[in-house]
Amino acid sequence: MKYNPLHQLMNPESIAIVGAGNNPMKMGTMQALSILKDGYGGKFLPVHRKDKTVLGHTAYASVLDLPETPDLAMLVVPTDQVIPLLEEFGKIGTKHAVIISAGFRETGPEGELLEERLKETAGKFGIRFLGPNCIGLLNSQLSLNMTVFSHTAPPGILGMASQSGTYVTQTFPYLKSRGIHFSKAISVGNEADIDIVDVLEYLGEDEETRAIALYIEGISDGRRFIETAQKITPYKPVIAQYVGGSTAGARAGASHTGSMAGPDYLYDGAFKQAGIIRVHSVEELYSHGWALATLPPLKGGRVGVVTNSGGPGTAIAHTCDVYGLEVPAFSEELQQQIKTHIPAVASSANPVDLTFFLNSRVLSSLIPELIIESGEVDCLIIHGAMSSGMMKEVYPHVREALGNIALDDLLATFKQDISTAASMPGKNDFPVVISSFFGREDSFTAAYQDQNIPVFDSPEKAARGMASLLRHKEIRERGKITHLPLPVKSTEAEKIISQALQKGQKALDEYSAKKIMALYRIPVTSEKIANSADEAVETALLLGLPVAVKACSPQIMHKTERGLVHLNLKQTDEVRQAFNSIKETAGEGTPVIVSEMVKGDREFTAGMTRFPGFGPAVLFGLGGVFTEALKDVTFRIAPLGLTEAQEMAFDIRAKKLLCEFRGMPAADISAIGEILQALGTIALLHPQVAEIDINPIIIRGNMPVVVDALVVIE
Amino acid sequence: MKYNPLHQLMNPESIAIVGAGNNPMKMGTMQALSILKDGYGGKFLPVHRKDKTVLGHTAYASVLDLPETPDLAMLVVPTDQVIPLLEEFGKIGTKHAVIISAGFRETGPEGELLEERLKETAGKFGIRFLGPNCIGLLNSQLSLNMTVFSHTAPPGILGMASQSGTYVTQTFPYLKSRGIHFSKAISVGNEADIDIVDVLEYLGEDEETRAIALYIEGISDGRRFIETAQKITPYKPVIAQYVGGSTAGARAGASHTGSMAGPDYLYDGAFKQAGIIRVHSVEELYSHGWALATLPPLKGGRVGVVTNSGGPGTAIAHTCDVYGLEVPAFSEELQQQIKTHIPAVASSANPVDLTFFLNSRVLSSLIPELIIESGEVDCLIIHGAMSSGMMKEVYPHVREALGNIALDDLLATFKQDISTAASMPGKNDFPVVISSFFGREDSFTAAYQDQNIPVFDSPEKAARGMASLLRHKEIRERGKITHLPLPVKSTEAEKIISQALQKGQKALDEYSAKKIMALYRIPVTSEKIANSADEAVETALLLGLPVAVKACSPQIMHKTERGLVHLNLKQTDEVRQAFNSIKETAGEGTPVIVSEMVKGDREFTAGMTRFPGFGPAVLFGLGGVFTEALKDVTFRIAPLGLTEAQEMAFDIRAKKLLCEFRGMPAADISAIGEILQALGTIALLHPQVAEIDINPIIIRGNMPVVVDALVVIE
Q: Is B265 on the interface with A (CB under 8 A)?
């Protein structure tokens, strides 16, 4: 195993705990009990000021009294004791800590200061720590559970990093009943030292972890988050829920762990860029994460559906379709094979609907294997395999008619070779998910779960779970994301910007803005400043009529409304008139720009904005008057590789406009990608550029041309 | 109770069953057992050719041997016996039947014929029946369960009509474990006689049913469906899932019950028009249906959130925001009151986050009541109330430390007055939903469920459930939908259409199309046919320059591409040139139209298409080149009341374009609504009009003007 700074913290050979006592209903004690009772094999060293023993183990009066240096210190103490205790652990040489105590940055300015001091103390001794304000960690391979809930489930293969402690402790029973098991689960709390990105990196390297789930309220270093994820996602699926992107969500998150949230669209773009599958509920985070961890990768998007029931079959087929999976009708040949095993009124097309039919073997293995062998689909969804769950339901009805049989005898009578049936998916190394209205009270559901076959509790969920596997296929196929080194900074661009700043400007004039674009190889309209009406006419003739004549000053707002923009001038007279009219309206000193008219029916917008934690983000979207009305825009974080930039262009609802459309050729997607990359480059090379707003980019023929641009500087 | 034809079928005093025997693992027998064992108090009359008794009851050798006329006949027999048996029941005077047997229209053309004969037989005797190919019905008030699964849950208040039998039988255990209880549940099968609309109407009148859930694969009479629903939805919530709108879903549905599906967008529009809340999974159908049935109506959209845990609180707040609910920060005053009851590090803003805190009373009643009293929110979501569920989890850890206490004693020690806490929502007549990761194994969850408080198994689901209540508030507030009688048919329009049909035209020319629009008071461009270049110029001057000059013939396709459309002609010379050029290109005989140019930056599309089962549907959407690329369109079924037409206009993503926008005034929404109404009128009065496609409607100032229209006739 590759060395990762978290490896030691996750695999301590000894743990000292401060804050555990002998009252089992107190949090620290509950956490100590989890360590002691759930199978951890390392040393347990409680520190207690008064009690000589804690939970039957020798306790030490202070950290300095410990008989050895523990690998890991765990603090569940009042806020004001955290720093002094960490100092003591530092002195005895402990290098890792888990700080459960709350009361730091999540409580406001004073707490922030305290958290800074905590970081200084840890830094002084080279201590790496989780928290504060976290619930601890679970390493199921070590049977090490430091949380408040007991963890009795077997070791799993889904890794979890969470900015909420609840999701790695209070949900243990929920997960166990659904057959979902963690490899490692880590509550990051306030992330004063180790943050969720560190944990992501660790889980990416952890061999027991086959997929990673992230619960996120806010990311403090967006760029590192994306880069870390991009290294993992081409081979190991990463799935995330983000809840900080709304007003209420951001406020709740801030008071929860003091996290800094950003707009939903920013995270949405960052996830796509990072190759992270996004879900919108914790249920999907767990259940799709589990499907991604347990199933072999999808090779294609064709789904076979086998059910005992028309409704769920139809719902699965419909949901597959909505989420981009295909449910193809089976070949006549395959249907003939299937027909020999099912009732006459049943349907052999896809979905196969056995109708109400009690032979579970046909449903759960015989027909699925026929379908798998046919090669006609890439995965299977099975609904309706049931045994003891149903029998327990009908038992009160049939008991008497069956000679007052005992329930256990009834179950035995109808016992199928369920474990064989449930092992079918694994035997064929084929992606199969199960939909069942029964939980573990049914022997089929339990057998599937025990063999790591994902079971969803309703049909649509099974289909959506499979769709997450399709998303991962797309992510795998885009391969490694590469970035070229940034180009050299343009000194001419730098000069334009600093001169404007020196003049006190808040924004560049249109001419200078486009000049900067051009210096970074963004195609812009040909244009020139005209100092007289004659010069305007001269330029117009040089560019070729028709032209546009516009006032060019960073101070003038609402140019169009004030009549300072004259478009589509076809005659030299009109050019002259426009020039004079602008000078009259806006003043003799206002520069006038003469610009070629760009013809094209497709208009887009692009731009750049900076976000705390993420730095410059590039925007692309539908342009013209529709930008505001349709809000069809997408974001990515700079710098952008070419793949990322092109994916971005196609990530708008109006993406059809980029393809061949109503007699117009497909837009040159590389050229658009290069514009988006260049916007990122400008932002990274020129920190004085606060914001760029290009609207429109017109597609002339197949090539994009920037027609108007605003560059805000500071 | 008002008389409804289904009332008798749902409340039989005696039931004869054919197809039940003494083998309890056969379907008919299982259904007979459900009748006998689940508490039905009426007479049970089995018909069996050989056995003298069935399940301990006297059996009769044939229908004609029955000692009395049963209220209801139930048939669970091979397909070919259905019609002869129904005939016999007809002869003895039975007026209601439930036909479980399959093998009719869902199997293809032969089955369709058989189903026709079945209908004839029933018609001959005036028998109303459910099925064939259904699973029966449940009337929980009578304890009458005719399905294959046992039903031991108490009578409920959610009515269910389903085109899948599974959803009113195989999900009984699923529903019981989630505390969701049906008033009536009806499987409609192939709907040869009684269809889902009849059941909807019945449940609308049924006093025990407080909300109605519909599982739909296809509706055969869309207009009646909408009208029936519109009478119910202003006071009783109706919620529906539709799965027939995709290729795979439609194919699956057809082989399931032979239902005729339509495109998803058609049903989406029909649901909105009908005031039906749409959901996309059976889980939401049940759980939102239950919340709608049990909770008092929402008075506003402000939500209070109380949790023991930051993650779920943040997720609830975020999800509320996404679904249109508001989570406002509480006033300082209310926060001060809350703070006195919670730990210092906990948050008193909204969400209130108690952090890990074991006092359930504070979480589940004390703080909620403070919030309810404040009047600052309209509903509450509570997450984290738990008791025995958690205790059972931690018991293995704490047992020893608590002197080897027995689990029951531990539970007793920590027993809270849960039933009082759980009765809080009802006591305050205030909408409250619960989120809990524990099911009924936790005493809190069970107590809530037993008091009809909806419990969702994860935070986001609770928020989405509440959002369905908000949808119902909007539906209630739109009030009764009224329709004016259709206007008188225009004989002039009729003449234009029949003349075109006589000439063998497949479509009207543009001039005639707009003429028809104008006859139904749709505002169109002023225009005239010009018979010579001089006339064209004359018309142009009359209309005022600039004008458009276009070829006007139903035969010519791709007019723009062929240079037969000349726009924005500013000078008489240009008009003359355009006229001559069209005659040259398209032939002397081609009529030429001279039309005013309509100025306006906002373009919409509207139209009409006919759908099997639904008749004419009206379309509205974003127009111009974007129609195809953005597919931002919405449908409604004709005729449209003004409310429906105006709701429709605002049901597009680009609805902002209809409001004040970039210096343009708000579009006249009544005028747009009248166009949409008129399109429905034309379709209903002129069945020869197969299709109408208007694109664009330009907003001139604030008024819509139809600029181009295609009318397809047949």
A: no
